[in-house]
Specification:
Elements lengths: L10 E8 L14 E2 L21 E2 L2 E2 H8 L5 E4 L23 E3 L5 E3 L5 H11 L2 E6 L6 H12 L5 H8 L10 E4 L12 H14 L9 E8 L3 H11 L6 H6 L6 E8 L15 H12 L1 H15 L6 E9 L18 H16 L4 E6 L10 E3 L6 E3 L1 H8 L7 E3 L1 E3 L5 E9 L3 E11 L1 E8 L2 E8 L6 E8 L7 E5 L19 E2 L3 E4 L2 E6 L3 E8 L2
Parallel strand pairs: 1-22, 2-5, 5-8, 8-9, 9-10, 10-11, 11-12, 12-13
Antiparallel strand pairs: 1-17, 3-4, 6-7, 14-15, 16-20, 18-19, 20-21, 21-27, 22-26, 23-24, 23-27, 25-26
Helix pairs in contact: 3-4, 5-6, 6-9, 8-10, 10-11
The structure holds alpha-L-arabinofuranose.
């Protein structure tokens, strides 16, 4: 693989990075995750059961835990997704052999035996060193059920729910902060209007009470894609709370954040395309879709700013990622897709947008962590072998941005763009096609602990690019850089070849006279760490 010295004269893109002007904090939670009872995400992915030959603790796969610990994952959303609004948590506690079974009607119509429930999930979070983000059942559950779940998890006295938890083997209450109020209520979560849901969200928030020192951060289920009206209805529903810092801060009569979902769907919904067999046009269409997340983030932010200029209400993108056709021969309800270099570049441009919008965006969750959609990890059904995907490596290379201060990068003049014709509307809407100007260079930066981290993506499928970024406001030491690329955009990792797409030390970045020079190969992602001296 050639990582330097391109054969033809590459385009040059110039920019400025003010190292002494740190801006908003990039919450580590924008690097959040999502695990649903869907296909092989929980069963076979995270959880194999205590009798499995795969090394496990309490049934939880230790190789998956080890791989995810290297990402410093900040939170894990569970149990769904659409599944959350069918899930009755009391079916998932107590002796496993006595737990009732249910039908997972959204995902393959398979029978769920509830062997992975609340205790197993909280144990998983402890092993991962991550915070739980639990989605309560608003669509088909009761308010009392939700209220009981909060008490079961977080209450420390001898109240009925705390006593039940103890009887099931857990003495101390857990700490739970992130609390979702349903999922996609405009669709699988109840097919409601925004107004109907807004009332329910306040009702469920009211009964999702803070117990003792445990303070919940309640997240109302929000829009699909660019449905800004939904966000506006929820902002209006906050009403009195917005004028009352106490209530909004941590009270239980309202919610503290609003979510939305935005997937990268390259083709029309009924023909999304293959994860690995695609041509260059499909590649550019995917990247044009991915880059639209920036406009959608800006759209929701604009609505929220109008009602909450001080940015006290958080925006949460709790489902994002690529959505392709399932792999041939797999259950269509299991949403199992391969993950190629293209997916990694989708992730890197999302993170650039997240970093820029992190003054409002408080959390984002990749859908999903294992074996479903844009996964970090794929496990082989036959052998149990584990594969780290190209997307995994972007999360790992970028983890230095977690809780760092954003540093704006200003590109000078006209950065390279490419017209991508006939891109379907956000979310795969075939009737809403348009031509999109794709920026083929994407950059973001942050600083913490005496260093700056710069992330750079070249989306051009065939040509390298040179970036010349003026470093202002601080002197820097010797850069260290890593590069993620491969010969082909379709390259992906398999149990037989686990490192077809893996980060390598990159010698194409240097600092000369206060200018960061990076020679980025075609279709590549790089990180450059600059010690501030
Ligand atoms: O992530 C898969 C599904 O996509 C989720 O269950 C649902 O919320 C969304 O439609």
């Amino acid at each position: 693989m050639s990582t330097t010295t391109p054969s033809s004269t590459p385009a040059v893109v110039e920019g400025v990075l003010d190292l002494d002007l740190p801006g908003h904090r990039i919450s580590r939670h924008v690097y959040g995750h999502f695990a649903e009872h869907l296909g092989r995400c929980i069963y076979g992915g995270f959880y194999v059961g205590e009798d499995s030959e795969v090394p496990n603790e309490g049934g939880i796969r230790l190789d998956v835990v080890e791989a995810l610990r290297a990402l410093d994952i900040p939170n894990l959303r569970w149990p769904g997704g659409c599944f959350a609004d069918d899930y009755h948590w009391k079916d998932g506690i107590g002796p496993r052999e006595q737990r009732p079974r249910m039908v997972n009607s959204h995902w393959g119509d398979v029978v769920e035996d509830n062997s992975f429930g609340t205790h197993e999930f909280m144990h998983l979070c402890e092993l991962l060193g991550t915070e739980p983000y639990i989605s309560a059942n608003v669509g088909s559950g009761t308010v009392a059920e939700t209220s009981d779940w909060v008490q079961y998890l977080t209450r420390g006295d001898d109240s009925p729910m705390a006593a039940l938890r103890r009887a099931n083997g857990r003495d101390e209450p857990w700490k739970v902060t992130y609390w979702g109020l349903g999922n996609e209520p405009w669709g699988c979560g109840g097919n409601m209007s925004a107004e109907a849901y807004a009332d329910l969200a306040r009702q469920f928030a009211t009964y999702s009470r803070d117990m003792g020192d445990n303070k919940l951060y309640r997240i109302a289920a929000g829009a699909t894609n660019a449905d800004y009206r939904w966000t506006e209805v929820l902002m209006k529903a906050l009403g009195r709370a917005l004028g009352d810092g106490e209530v909004l801060g941590h009270g239980n009569s309202s919610f503290q954040a609003i979510s939305f979902h935005c997937y990268t769907v390259a083709g029309p919904w009924d023909h999304k395309g293959s994860a690995t067999e695609f041509d260059t046009d499909e590649y550019y269409a995917t990247m044009a879709q991915a880059q639209r997340v920036e406009a959608v983030l800006a759209g929701h932010t604009k609505v929220m700013d109008a009602y909450d200029p001080d940015k006290r209400v958080g925006l949460v993108l709790d489902e994002w990622g690529t959505w392709f056709d399932v792999e041939p021969g797999t259950n269509p309800g299991f949403l199992f897709q391969q993950n190629a270099l293209r997916d990694a570049l989708v992730a890197s441009v999302h993170f650039d947008a997240f970093h820029r919008h992190a003054d409002r965006l408080v959390m984002a969750n990749i859908a999903q962590t294992v074996n479903v959609l844009q996964a970090m990890i794929l496990t082989d059904e036959e052998s149990g072998a584990l594969v780290l995907t190209p997307s995994y490596h972007v999360f790992e290379m970028n983890k230095g941005h977690q809780d760092a201060a954003h540093l704006p990068v200003h590109l000078r003049g006209a950065a390279p763009t490419r017209t991508v014709a006939g891109v379907v509307g956000v979310g795969g809407h075939a009737l809403d096609r348009s031509d999109v100007e794709l920026s083929t260079v994407s950059v973001s930066a942050s600083t913490k602990d005496g260093a700056a981290l710069v992330s750079l993506t070249n989306l051009d499928a065939g040509a390298p690019v040179v970036l010349r970024i003026d470093l202002r406001g601080a002197a820097v030491g010797e850069p260290t850089a890593r590069l993620l690329t491969a010969d082909a955009l379709q390259a992906h990792n398999t149990p037989q070849q686990g490192d077809a797409v893996a980060p390598r030390t990159f010698d194409g970045a240097r600092v000369e006279d206060g200018v960061l020079l990076v020679e980025l190969p075609a279709h590549s992602f790089a990180t450059v760490s600059l010690p501030l001296v």
